[in-house]
Amino acid sequence: MNKKKLFGAFLALTALVGVSACGGNETESSNSPTTSSQTEAVASSKGSESSVSTPSSSANPTPSSSTSSAPAPSETTPEPTTPVDPDANYTTVLSQDFTDVTAIADKTDGATMYLDSSAKGSAVVEGDTKYAKITGNSSDTTLYLTTSGLDNGKIKMSFDFSLSGVQGSWTLFQLYGTSETETEPAEVFGFRTGKDSSSVTYIGYRTDKGQSVPTGFSSQLVYDGNANTWFHTELLLDLGAGTGNVVVTKAGTSYEASFTQTISEIKALKFMAKGQGKSVCVDNVVVKHELGDFTTVKAQKLVKLEALYNSYDLTKYTTNGATLTAKYNETKTNVEAATDFDKLNEAYNKGVAEIKAIKSDAEIAAENLANAKTAAIAEVRAEYDRLDNLYNYTEAERTELDSTRDTAIEAINAATTIEEIPELVETAKSMLAEVSHTGNGSEVVRMNYSFDATTLTAAADKEACVQSEFGTTVTMTGSITKRVSSSSGNVYAVELQKQKSGTLSFVATADATLTLTIGSSSSSNTSYFVVLADDQRIEAATVSGNAVKDTTDATYVVVAGTTYAENVVTYTLEKGKTYTLCTMAGADDVISGRAVRIVTMNIA
User: Fold this and answer.
1) What is the rounded CA–CA span in Å between residue 161 and residue 281?
2) What is the DSSP letter of 159?
């Protein structure tokens, strides 16, 4: 791992932090008492409170020329005392109070705070005095930073966080530690406000539904449900010794906990809002790193490198065993030759990554089998397409053709050896060729048209559609507009105006099926929709959802509301006929007074 990436992870966390309280004005102090081992210069301002924690210092006294006189001969002027700086051997790798933050970035390489890719919520910056906020949704929303390269020395970290809408289980921060062989990081400790868990050492707790505070925890730190509560955290980790100390302070009351945990490398610092309406605010993040003794760190890396190499069973690397051994020896030589931390980390991280990328016999075989399957499936699909373009198939014949192709693909995917695949491909081709067909020719024209209104763009709601948005297969006439969501600003449907004043038409160049998802012009409206074949209304083949055939005249469809995805209508098309999609027209205002909205249109 390189130091740059590690620092990037911590920086990402910093971007989360805000100066202002989450969900209200700050009413409690978020400062923790400073100690000789944890004093850092961090300024913060939350609401009406402000504080500065700095190392103590003494200045040389400067006598005033107008009021002071020289000391008597028997007196001596004391030498100024130089205070001991507890952070003299530390380098600040991250320091940010988010006053200049304007956005929370997606995941990128480097020093970036980002949202988990699966998160449904959002991280935002609000107010005049910026802070980082993670807002939960129906599933967990996580804001975190990845780290790499900090696998030696000591780390000091401080930050503030605040909660709102807490119910149930929240993980406010976790530092992950893992061995080289583990693929998923393991929890070292965490701060939660929900139910107990044997995997986490709690330093803060909120009772839920009558639960009692776990033994050994400070009742002063139990979360009181006040959304304006800020906690200040001071954390010290000795990566070499595998020990840590954490102090959490709320309103001037502190709780301190120590722990021992073997940490090969810090993986991530995570803030998580779990559940809709929940949020976490983070502010004033400072991270400092002490590398430690260079000779000791180099020795530790050599031990880790040897342990990694010894974890491989070379009998399972008959193809790449020599490569793996050579890469280990090369990395070891480069680590031993390093003369500073930058070169040491570069040599170690590069070598470890290259060793882990070397494939075992099983991985090579699996990769070759996967490639063979991909090529075989492509060959079967190509034969299917050739036959489909060469012959005219009835609907029943094409169903059989499709089923034959799909069965062949399933069989290929189920193969366990490469040797099976050629025979499976030949069998598939033979079976596809045996499917009967009604005629043949060198070229058979097939209908293949797809339209999705949600892919369109519009500057404003009810912007007129243009012909190019429907392509060359379908012709637009009259008034058709794009409907835009007021909340998202995105197009969600096109609207065919009432009284047949907006139409979409096309010529069926082959027998095909027309499939539509449609809706009415409002959630409380009912609309009437028809498809004309050579100007004659035809009956829908199938309907679903809030779309139904009229009870007395099945040649038009009655559709209610705007639950478009449920309203699926299909029509059977005959080659050579001209089809027109439109609203009902006539003197009856009940059935001709509403527009119809179309979301998707497919012809195949």
Assistant:
1) 5
2) E
Q: Show the tokens assigned to 334.
A: 């480069």
Model pTM above 0.85: no
Amino acid found at 511: D
CA distance 518 to 582: 12
Backbone angles phi, psi at 569, to 5 degrees: -125, 135
Tell me how far apart the alpha carbons of residues 233 and 159 are, in angstroms, rounded to a whole number: 5
The Cα–Cα gap between 167 and 134 comes to 15
> What is the separation, in whole angstroms, between the first and last Cα of the chain?
52
Please, are residues 43 and 160 in contact by the beta-carbon 8 Å criterion? no
Inform me whether the pLDDT recorded for 73 exceeds 70: no
pLDDT in tens, 348-375: 989 998 999 999 999 999 999 999 999 9
Listed residue (161, 155, 186, 156) closest to 173, CA to CA: 161
Residue 352: closest CA among 309, 320, 392: 309
pLDDT (tens digit per residue) in 116-163 = 544 445 555 666 666 777 777 666 666 655 545 566 678 888 888 876
DSSP line for 27-76: -S-------TTT---EEEEETTEEEEE-----PPP---TTT--PPPTT--
Q: How many Å apart are CA 561 and CA 524, to the nearest integer? A: 6
- Tokens standing for 24? 């209200």
Region 564-580 average pLDDT: 93
- Give DSSP secondary structure letters for 445-509: ----EEEEGGG---SSTTEEP-GGGGTTTSEEEE-EEEEE-TTT--EEEEEEPTTTTEEEEEE-S
* C-alpha to C-alpha distance for 577 and 526, rounded to whole angstroms: 29
Six token digits for residue 123: 């991280």
Identify each DSSP E strand in 74-225 by its residue range.
91-96, 114-115, 122-125, 132-135, 141-146, 154-164, 171-177, 186-192
- Quote the distance between the C-alpha of residue 597 and its chain's center: 33
* Rounded Cα distance, 505 and 578, in Å: 7
